[in-house]
Amino acid sequence: MRALTLLLFFLLFCSCQDKKTRVITKDVNESRMKPSNNDFINVSKKADFRLTDKNVMEFLLDYGSKNIENLVRITTDYGFIDILLFEKTKFHRANFVYLTKKKYFNNTQFYRVITDFMIQGGNSDDRITLKKRKTIGKYLLPNDYDKGFKHDRGMLSMPSKNIENPYKKASPFEFFIVQQKGGAHHLDGDYTIFGKVVRGMDVVDKISAVPTDASDWPLQNVFIKDISIIKQ
Hints:
Blueprint: H1 2-33, H2 37-46, H3 56-66, E1 71-76, E2 79-85, H4 90-101, E3 108-114, E4 118-123, H5 127-136, E5 155-158, E6 175-178, E7 192-199, H6 201-208, E8 223-229
Antiparallel strand pairs: 1-2, 1-8, 2-7, 3-4, 3-8, 4-6, 5-6, 5-7
Helix pairs in contact: 3-4
């Protein structure tokens, strides 16, 4: 009798344990099938907006109308460079302001420096910069060179993408400043001028004089510590 009682107790215990296991498994499966509110929030964060060739012009037109700043400061180890962005090149101004507010330029470099010609910045050889670009998007800007500006000394211009780019569309993450005395007018008509240095050409001159390797990359990195909007 005692043995029978023990057997019944053992069977009842196993049955209860098995039921608990099935309930737990069911709960886990349901939680995977029906995400919580937190799960939806996480998904939306991963699906951040990115710029493309298809949406960039409409986006910048709207963004530029709401973000009208046109004065920025580039901070380097050599000092400050203040730049006035031109209203006439509205898409390029809006793009530069957008990237500035996204803090894309921070810790990039003046990676191409040619004495008595120009200094080019907005890129780097580190993975962080590449990650920033992927987060912002992949796109080009149209060449807007017919606004009456010339590549005079101190002008801010946007280089073209080198590969498969017959219309010389601009590479939106990079820029160059003309340092050459008398200007670099052989560039006129090929690149979009969208701003000018209003303070800090002495800093541009200092950077243009640094030693470089055969590819015009400074032997000692010239970092852009920060680009920020200046309140007028």
